[in-house]
Amino acid sequence: MAEDTTDDEREEELSSIKAIYPDELIVDPHDPFSASIDILVAPATPLAVVFPHPVDGAPPTTLPPSPTSQLGAPPSVQPKRDIHNLSYLPPLRLQLTLPDGYPSAAAPKFRLSTSPPWIPEKLLQKLQKEGVGLWEEYGREQVLFSYITHLQDAAERGFDLGEDRVLELSLDMKIGLLDYDIKTKKKVFDQGTYDCGVCLEPKKGSSCYQLPRCSHVFCVQCLQDFYNDCISSGDVNGVKCLSPGCGQEKEIPGVKRKKKPDRLLTPSELLQIPLETAMVQRYVEMKRKKKLESDKSTIYCPRTWCQGAARSKKYPKITDLSQITESDDEASDDETAVEEKANPGKDAKPKGAPETDRLAICEDCNYAFCRVCMQGWHGEFVRCWPRDASELTEEERASMNYILAHTSPCPTCSVPCQKSHGCNHMSCFQCKTHFCYLCSAWLNADNPYEHFNQEGRPCYQRLWELEEGDDGNGNVHFNGIRGAEAAAQRAAQAAVDIQNQEIDAAEDQEIPPPAPEPPAPLVPAPVFAQPNGRQAANQVPRENVRRNPRDPGQERAAHGGGGRYPLMEANQMGLQRFLQLVRDDEEDEWDSDELEDEDDEFAIPER
Amino acid sequence: MAAARKRILKEYTECSNDTPPGMKINFDEQNMTEWEILMDGPEQSVYSGGHFKLRLTFPNEYPFKPPVVSFKTKIYHPNVSNDDKGSMCLGMLRPDAWKPPNKVISVLHLVRTLLIEPNVDDAIEASIASEFKDNKKGFEKTAKEWVKQYAK
Question: A197 vs B101: CB contact, 8 Å cut-off?
């Protein structure tokens, strides 16, 4: 063979290779007989690689039946395993130089490398030698194409690295390799074409989304349309893979699985499709609400205008979408199931709640209340009773009725007080608050009688009404809470009777016929214009009405229904409203203020 | 809606290329959300010899919501409501079971299959279903009579 044809042969070979791999082959601009080519590594079966666990404290887990391979890995000491199956690995770069005299006289020079160096150096050298061996085998002929094909075949087999053992790599390659795998997968996916099963159109991968759990592919537009529709219409259970039968075949008969076969999509998946954040937020909130509602142990805020759920660890309030993960969802699902099993009778007996667990805080309005008696939080040391009317015995109910009919609550501590005799200026035995027995208004301790001396006020000149004591015989017109309750009680009498017989029906009870006209404003008692004489007159008129001083501004809905607002003014409109509230919350009144009926007590201590 | 029409059109093409045996689809391009289907009672069934008219209505939300199938011709069948609606609601036709990738062609196959083998466990007409189970002869007799009376 003539010397001068050698150049031609090298040139010819490289140009034909360049024609086969126009993009891949890069010829060195400084040396026409040097070139490099990247060989894609996409093993037919994903290559399992393992990285040592960053926190290497745990005892090593045992390998799967360890092979005694030629590479001879000592199976005894293994760091904790972190296995990943990679479909794509960084390419194998072949750098080749065809020296003078190639192919007949000189061997080609091959150099193999990867970045990062995930193929063991030994193996690379072996592969390089194979190139030269191939050249020899071919009778020192042009060998490039065969060698490249040979390397491609080896790459497809994953260089046999995963054949009998898992490839171990150092931790610093982990991010690079995983990232390459994901990015390449995405690139390959984007370049593909998929038939969307919904619009039945072929779509480019870049406008499709692959559901990560089941790998089903739909076009983004259809997914968005469908899931947005589901979420807007409140059908959160429809937010799952659209493919018919998806997820169902995975159920293994005989194997108990708590998980529903068709799982709902996670918020992060929805965001990736992408759905709008507001929509995903709505989805998450609705899902949570459904869970709360289906959980019988959920406790709701007793404030009628709020009725939010009590804060719960099981279903933490959602603040940040990114914090919602799939595992959270599953965990809470499981927890619910377990808990329901463990406490089958829990809901039936709220009494059983441990004392320390009674504090509940509404997640919406932050109202702190007792989950047993549903009143505002009374501290750990107060005995209380469930608010459910059915929990009370006949006797208790009778006591309750009596208390409601014949005591006035202290405006500060709500303790029921009964007047045995004397004037209507009361001083609470428990908290020393001065108040008016007729309307429960808070009185200024310095000048308690001012309240009875203001012309035009409902209690004007009524200091001595009911002097003989509150035994229920006096036809006295009460204001405020008592007034509302008295009227409501008369109105609700029929309802109460039925309630006593049919306790279960009590909650849904129809409101009794319209309340009778509230008693006409009483004619001021004529005689006792100046009760007690002293201090009563000539005071600076100052009204000290405190609305529920313990938690100002908070409706004490649980206690005595909505009607426990000290209603200072005998406002007929307001009164009607209270009547309604009181009647609506009728059973709330069979409450914790359990008392002894001791008529000769000035006021009755709370038990 | 535009997407729905596009899909319905595609499905019509598919169905007309591969119409289930004994079926004919009357398709109106002006009103493509309502298909009229003429169907011969399958030979191996008691409805053999009958000609049934069905209406397939696509909701606006199609394919997110299932199409509605109703028999315009009266038929004595446990899975078809015995009223002037003649509605069917089972299997994939249930709103909660419908999946958008389901296609009309499979709906048509479902209808045909049901005429051959009624699904008594998911019956809309319980009395016909129990008759089918307990007194098959009686069921077949009535079904055939109805075919003669209504489906000729």
Answer: yes
The Cα B151–Cα B46 span in angstroms is 12
| A108 closest CA partner among A82, A84, A136 | A136
B11 chain-A contacts, CB cut-off 8 A: 200
CB contact under 8 A, A242 and B92: no
Report yes or no: A51 and A175 within 8 Å, Cβ to Cβ: no
Domain A2-64+77-180 homologous superfamily, CATH: Ubiquitin Conjugating Enzyme (3.10.110.10)
Tokens of A379: 């501290």
For A236, the closest chain B residue by CA position comes to B96
Task: Give A165-217 pLDDT, tens digit per residue.
Answer: 778 888 888 888 889 988 888 888 888 888 888 888 888 888 888 888 888 88
Residue ranges of domains in chain A: 2-64+77-180, 192-244+261-338, 404-550, 556-596
Q: What is the pLDDT of residues A293-338, one digit of tens each?
A: 877 778 888 887 887 888 776 666 666 565 554 444 443 443 333 3
Orientation of helix A277-294 relative to helix A326-342, angle to 10°: 10
Q: Look up the CATH superfamily of A192-244+261-338.
A: Zinc/RING finger domain, C3HC4 (zinc finger) (3.30.40.10)
Q: What is the DSSP string of A447-493?
A: -GGGGGG-TTSTTTT-TTTTTT--SS-S-----HHHHHHHHHHHHHH
Q: pTM of this prediction?
A: 0.54
Which helix H or strand E contains B10, and what residues bound it?
helix B2-17
Angle between helices A3-20 and A144-156 (to 10 degrees): 30
Backbone angles phi, psi at A361, to 5 degrees: -125, 125
Residue of B nearest to A195 (CA): B101
ipTM above 0.85, yes or no: no
Q: What whole-number distance in Å separates Cα of residue A474 and Cα of residue A81?
A: 85
Task: Name residue A491's amino acid.
Answer: A
Touching check for A220 and chain B: CB below 8 Å? no
Contact A200 B99 (CB under 8 A): no
**Annotated catalytic, B89?**
yes
Structural domains of chain B in order of their starting residue, each with its CATH number: 2-150 (3.10.110.10)
CB A576 within 8 A of CB A516: no
